[in-house]
Amino acid sequence: MNAARILIVEDELIARENLDHILRKEGYDTVAVDGGQPAFGELEKGEFDLVLTDLRMQQVDGLQVLERTKELYPDTEVIMITGYATVPSAVEAMQKGAYHYLPKPYNIEEVRILARKALEKRRLALEVRDLKRQVQSQKGVPLIIGKSPQIEALKEVIGKVAPTEATVLILGETGTGKELVAKAIHQFSPRADKRFLAINCGAFSEELLANELFGHEREAFTGARGVKKGLLESAPGGTIFLDEIADMPLAMQVKLLRVLQDRTLIRVGGTIEIPVDIRVLAATNKDLKAEVDRSAFRQDLYYRINVVTLEVPPLAARKDDIQLLGHHFLQKFAQAQGKHIDAIADNVMDILTNYEFPGNIRELENIMERAVTLCNGSVIEIKHLPLDFQKPQFQMQRHQKREFLTLEANEKEYISWVVKQARGNKTRAAEVLGIDRVSLWRKMKRFGLE
């Protein structure tokens, strides 16, 4: 990774050399000039990541350097330095886009911290800009947002498995984006021009799930007045995503195994084998091997769907991505609501990056939607966050021993917490969890939360 480029504009020789020395020791690529006019020349030659400029200089002052920098490179951050700090000059500098206003005398650590923070803001701005370009260019291809090592590794594996016909099992906590991963596999596969269908296996009874997946023949049951094609038959050449496959009844697991082995199905009430051409992707937030061990999931089906396993990391394990995801959701909801909100306050971002997000990306998305809805200005502030986040004693962290809990125990803990936060309103809790009310009732009954 290339070192950040910093332009130092200071007409006092000793001050200029000191700044140059401080920043070079931090590993930055610096260019130091003795005034505004030579600074213009350096800016014409190429882009800098950060500019530190004195305010009062002969001929061309710091405000002019700031204006020229922002004119040429809007995403370059500028720190103003002066020994003549006044409120009007500070306000003017900030209004024109300065990152910070640093009065003399300053200490070395202050310069290091400011430079680091300004460059971090610049990095994030560039990532958000690249994200916008991807959204505009990929036209419907799902974006897996993140630059953390875990997400980069996940993207790499998706790139390898997508072009194949391998059945993929996607593991991860509730709200991590398992369906998004499934859509990405489909979109980057040879089946991309065919249908992608998703079904939550835990949202239906055995009879309804069989009807949804396999369809039925005429008069197969009371009210079946005609033939109905199931999802497996309705997407020839496409992909079907079976979410929460661990909740699929055992009898249905037998039928699904037959489809995967023989590539044929029999409709409910039928006798004729119908060939199907479909790729199956499955997901669960449970430990499927543990489900096999306790005979709640068929071992033969487990091995059939577990050709390739992908694990989607929880948001708490990829905190570096919280800023990028937060800005992504900010733009998404601001655009949907016709608002011009372009920033998240630093103290808000500090709260978000230190929060453990038991609800993962879905919870962050809900928080940002609420914030955008309540915000009437251009910056998301603490007052726009949920009430719990506004309390000084806010300490909502994951269970101290969460890493030792099973996926099922994590799910029970989170469902209990969400229902409590929704004050027992199961409809609202189901919305937050991203499932229907019937599925929530089934899960609460299984976990003994009723």
CATH architecture name of the largest domain: 3-Layer(aba) Sandwich
| Straight-line N-to-C gap | 53 Å
* CATH homology superfamily name of the largest domain: P-loop containing nucleotide triphosphate hydrolases
Helix content: 40-55%
Poorly predicted ranges: 137-141, 395-404
Descriptive keywords:
16 strands, 48% helix, Rossmann fold, 450 residues, 19 helices, 5-stranded parallel beta sheet, Arc Repressor Mutant, subunit A, alpha/beta
Provide a short characterization of the protein structure.
With 450 residues, the chain is α/β, with parallel strands linked by helices. The protein is 48% helix and 14% strand. It has three domains: 5-131, Response regulator (Rossmann fold, 3-Layer(aba) Sandwich); 149-311, Rossmann fold, CATH 3.40.50; 399-450, Homeodomain-like (Arc Repressor Mutant, subunit A).
Plain-language structure description:
Strand 3, helix 3 (62-72) and strand 4 form a beta-alpha-beta unit. This protein has three domains: 5-131, Response regulator (Rossmann fold), CATH 3.40.50; 149-311, P-loop containing nucleotide triphosphate hydrolases (Rossmann fold, 3-Layer(aba) Sandwich); 399-450, Homeodomain-like (Arc Repressor Mutant, subunit A). The strands form five sheets. A five-stranded parallel β-sheet has the order 2-1-3-4-5, sandwiched between helices. Strands 7-10-13-6-14 form a five-stranded parallel β-sheet, covered by helices on one side. It has a two-stranded antiparallel ribbon with strand order 8-9. 48% of the residues lie in helices and 14% in strands. The chain is α/β, with parallel strands linked by helices and 450 residues long. It is built from 19 helices and 16 strands. Mean pLDDT is 85; it is low at 137-141 and 395-404. The two termini are 53 Å apart.
